[in-house]
Amino acid sequence: MASSMASMSRILAKDTTGSHPWSSALCGQSFFRTHLGFRDGLSVACDLRSRGVVVARSALPSPVVRASRSNIFVCKAEAHVSGNIPSSAPKEISQYERIVELLTTLFPVWVILGTIVGIYKPSAVTWLETDLFTVGLGFLMLSMGLTLTFEDFRKCLRNPWTVGVGFLAQYFIKPLLGFAIAMTLKLSAPLATGLILVSCCPGGQASNVATYISKGNVALSVLMTTCSTIGAIIMTPLLTKLLAGQLVPVDAAGLAISTFQVVLLPTIIGVLSHEYFPKFTEKIITLTPLIGVILTTLLCASPIGQVAEVLKTQGAQLILPVALLHVAAFGLGYWLSKFSSFGESTSRTISIECGMQSSALGFLLAQKHFTNPLVAVPSAVSVVCMALGGSALAVFWRNVPIPIDDKDDFKE
Question: Which residues are the signal sequence here (predicted)?
Answer without folding.
Answer: none
